[in-house]
Batch of 2 targets.
Target 1
Amino acid sequence: MTDLSSVTVLGAGSYGTALAICIARKGQRTILWGRDHDQVEEMQQARENTRYLPGCQFPDLLELEPDLSKAVQASDTVLVVVPSYGFAEVLQQIAPDLRPEAGVAWATKGLEPETGRLLSEVATDILGHDRALAVLSGPTFAKEMAQGMPTAIAVAANQPDFVDKLSKALHCDRSFRVYLNDDFIGMQLGGAVKNVIAIGAGMADGLGFGANTRTALITRGLAEMTRLGLALGGKAETFTGMAGLGDLILTCTDNQSRNRRFGLAIGQGKSVDDAMKEIGQAVEGYRNTREVVALAKRFNVEMPISEQLYKVLYEGKAPMQVAQDLLARAQTSENSGA
Ligand SMILES: NC(=O)C1=CN([C@@H]2O[C@H](COP(=O)(O)OP(=O)(O)OC[C@H]3O[C@@H](n4cnc5c(N)ncnc54)[C@H](OP(=O)(O)O)[C@@H]3O)[C@@H](O)[C@H]2O)C=CC1
Ligand SMILES: O=C(CO)COP(=O)(O)O
């Protein structure tokens, strides 16, 4: 199994499967690895991921591979699509098997648990400074992508050649438009913060509030994302682009979002545990609320919405009290840093 033009996707959840379907549908050999051997076997038989992406048939060029080493050795483009809490573990596992020239990209949206590091820092630590690295981010629900609905995303990398290569592998004139972005930091930060704000938007709707509240949260959430992103070295334009405002709007307004649905359940009075069980898939914003708030403190950035969400998720504060406390904050200029 060696083919220079193939792409290996690691992670057979909803998004890994959707990306693998999109790449294979373009006519590119694509290898999909999942850690659950039984699930991989079942997908092979059904030519469908009945657990995470039911109803989306696999193109012929999509191959299933249960052996991680073989999957990694097969391609010079490896796309990691596991949740942020499994990211470092997967990179450690694949490091010995990567081809010397292979680039590693990820579609994971989040920060490293506990440390709050950007995933590019985690990847550089494990794979070294010379390895080509890239991130994909933008408003892209797995199911709509897999169904071939028109979708746009952005890609940023630490090496320009890898951005080109990756965007060519993904871009499809019929349905999947890939924008290039040179802001590796901002792209990662946007994807992590939007999940936190989406929990807040869901929570507001769960409390019975309406479009005014949701839109205020999106707008002020964007201000929080931008402040933190700029403090970390990101570019302002990124936060009004695909990985910023684009993904905020998508995730805060549509119930396909797990983060939004998680917030809805909490707003309706469910416990964190029950809400998590109800979703049954990755809810990145839950853990990342903690990391985002810690990062904001470290960089001395004000993020009142994220801080209040932290209190609900980790300190048991009532969502309605959070709404009242946010409204009761001292009046401020819209353009100030708070
Ligand atoms: N779904 C979407 O629409 C989008 C998702 N994303 C991002 O993609 C990432 C993955 O999310 P998504 O696919 O949706 O999540 P899902 O919950 O649908 O699936 C998660 C997948 O990751 C696997 N997994 C979890 N931990 C590990 C690990 N340590 N090693 C290997 N595999 C692991 C799970 O395996 P198992 O089943 O065995 O637990 C499962 O296959 C997230 O960061 C998310 O934010 C980005 C854009 C859109
Ligand atoms: O990131 C996503 C769409 O761009 C998916 O959002 P959720 O993880 O909230 O489902």
Note: The two ends are 54 Å apart (CA to CA).
Target 2
Amino acid sequence: MSLLQVKDVNQYYGGSHILRNVNLSAELGKVTVVLGRNGVGKTTLLKSLMGLVPIKSGGITFDGKAIDKATPYERARAGIGFVPQGREIFARLTVQENLQMGLAYKPGGTPIPAELFELFPVLKQMLGRRGGDLSGGQQQQLAIARALAAGPKLLILDEPTEGIQPNIIKDIGKVIRMLADRGNMAIVLVEQYYDFAEELADQYVVMERGEVIASGPGSEMQAKNIRQLVAI
Ligand SMILES: Nc1ncnc2c1ncn2[C@@H]1O[C@H](COP(=O)(O)OP(=O)(O)OP(=O)(O)O)[C@@H](O)[C@H]1O
């Protein structure tokens, strides 16, 4: 059974129908990539998964339980980690404090996992710096590390390559692959950078105007010319 199952989800902003009968699943050990042009509803889908916007109909099951009525806090505690678009680092808090925010719903005194500094060595040297003083790429790494701090089973990332230098994009791609390959985490990745998405995709979903218009195994993306579907 899939770790995450999204079934026939509909969502509206006021009178605008934003998500239309969206179906999606994510499996442990796999990267599920969500592709689509600007404004098709990708971020709204992720916010719906996280409980940041309410869904109107349909269901979301995580780890065998319906979560569509759960608060964002409850979903985080159940094991969903979220890396929002634009990173949302606390600019005036230090790197260490930002990482501690990722542990907010763990018992007090829970240490920051040392492993995060193996994944992102740069963060170790910068523990005392303010988040706002980091480069965009470093902030993205910090945002991912913050989401990983509590040991999620599902990691959701919204356009982690946006505005990031190529060498850091490569590092982030390696970390995503490694996390998936361990087999105890599912990853949902929204991406506009097609090559990055294709390289990481075990499964893909393409959205257009709030609907899923194509999906399948990542290995078929080239043959199905998915690049063309999302080209700007
Ligand atoms: N808070 C909101 N209130 C009303 N409409 C919104 C709101 N947020 C997004 N929308 C609209 O919903 C649609 C989907 O937006 P969404 O951000 O989910 O798309 P996206 O695929 O993530 O795009 P992008 O890649 O630009 O982030 C767009 O038409 C957008 O204008």
Note: Residues 13, 16, 18, 36, 38-44, 85 surround adenosine-5'-triphosphate (CB under 6 Å).
